[in-house]
Design brief:
alpha/beta; 7-stranded parallel β-sheet; 3-stranded mixed β-sheet; globular; binds nicotinamide-adenine-dinucleotide
Length: about 350
């Protein structure tokens, strides 16, 4: 009998690739999202806004999946610029999906695609992260990922969560949302980053869906070659695209490498166990960059004389230089709430909901 998976966020950067990875494993995919762009015509699509509890119940009861693969999210930095939407999707959507699964398909296996954001900030001096490490997210997105993981863990459903590192898609290096433009400067160039090719991430997700490692929290990132600094990863990507890196002063400077405050959540993770279990790593950083360079050979040649101009145009989006520049705050979150102009309550509590009344 064919297994059916309900895949949320199927039109997203990761979800798009999960369709193929699941299909190749013989799983019948029913794709759902609020948009259908890029979903192959031969894949059944059911539009569903996860913030609408009734719509989620309807789609789950209609499809009756054996697998729920949850890739939909409002990711950072969009989650910073649109905190209410992020909360509605990342927490509300998760709640609706868990409730509908428990009601209509309580035996289904639920795979939640989470993020290393759940760990919280990571300084260059920190050791490799393990799935059992304590978490202290200091932004709304990381808190939402951690909360959603724990709701699922205690839901009574058979489940696993996958915390992904920095997902790299050759076809979609920087999403269109305007929040990304200042954000690329808000992470210090000394930040540890653990990349993973999106095709490998999708393989891990599909493999987890098929193997059903109940109760596991798995860390998903590339092989050792992908453990680099932001400076190296961005430098290689910029160079492959034929663009000069903007000057260092455009980026948030690094702070004490032994103190987490001031750093982003990207981190180096111990992925040995996940790789043994799921066997997903195929693409080294070198082969990714090679492919990227090949893909952009003509663009590189065309841009060569324009490199200084392009670099200056990019740097103009930096919040730390030019007119209206801000001084870097003690934490990235301090900068986030100034750059995206967040209401004070959100900045203070990382939540767009009013705080519950004090029990005292
Ligand atoms: N991209 C990364 O670098 C990265 C890194 C770590 C973890 N992740 C995780 O991977 C998962 C997928 O991320 P992505 O990069 O594909 O994000 P994405 O933004 O490309 O895709 C998210 C999808 O969710 C859909 N969505 C948003 N709101 C919705 C709603 N109300 N109802 C239904 N669908 C809705 C969007 O339309 C989109 O297609 C997320 O859970 C994210 O936390 C991604």
């Amino acid at each position: 009998m064919t297994t059916t998976a309900l895949l949320t966020g199927a039109a997203g950067k990761v979800g798009k690739y999960v369709i193929g990875a699941l299909s190749r494993r013989g799983v019948q995919v029913v794709a759902t999202d609020i948009v259908s762009k890029g979903i192959p015509d031969d894949i059944r699509f059911e539009a569903c806004d996860l913030t609408d509890a009734a719509a989620v119940r309807r789609v789950v009861s209609l499809v009756k999946p054996e697998l729920v693969v949850h890739c939909a999210a409002v990711v950072a930095p969009i989650a910073y610029a649109e905190p209410e939407l992020a909360e509605a999707v990342n927490l509300g959507g998760m709640r609706h999906l868990i409730d509908a699964t428990k009601t209509h398909v309580p035996d289904a296996f639920f795979v939640f695609v989470s993020s290393c954001a759940a760990f919280g900030p990571c300084a260059p001096g920190d050791p490799l992260r393990h799935a059992t490490d304590p978490c202290w997210p200091d932004d709304n997105y990381g808190l939402q990922m951690l909360t959603a993981e724990s709701w699922l863990r205690y839901s009574g459903l058979r489940q696993c969560s996958l915390r992904l590192g920095a997902v790299m898609d050759i076809d979609n290096l920087m999403p269109e949302h305007p929040s990304y433009r200042p954000f690329i400067f808000m992470v210090s160039l000394d930040q540890p980053e653990h990349g993973v090719d999106v095709r490998d991430a999708a393989r891990a997700i599909a493999s987890a869906a098929v193997q059903q490692p109940d109760g596991h929290l798995l860390l998903i990132a590339g092989d050792d070659s992908w453990r680099v600094t932001a400076r190296q990863l961005r430098g290689e990507v910029f160079s492959a695209l034929g663009v000069s890196m903007p000057p260092d002063k455009a980026f948030r400077p690094g702070t004490d490498p032994l103190v987490k405050d001031g750093w982003f959540y990207e981190c180096w993770m111990d992925v040995t166990h996940s790789e043994q279990l799921l066997g997903f790593q195929r693409t080294s950083r070198h082969s990714f960059m090679e492919e990227l360079r090949k893909r952009h050979r003509l663009q590189r040649l065309a841009l060569f004389p324009l490199r200084p101009l392009v670099s200056r145009t990019l740097a103009a989006a930096s919040p730390y230089t030019g007119r209206g520049a801000i001084a870097p705050g003690a934490t990235i979150w301090n900068d986030v709430f100034r750059v995206y102009d967040l209401p004070t309550e959100v900045a203070r509590t990382r939540s767009s909901q009013p705080a519950p009344p004090s029990p005292f």
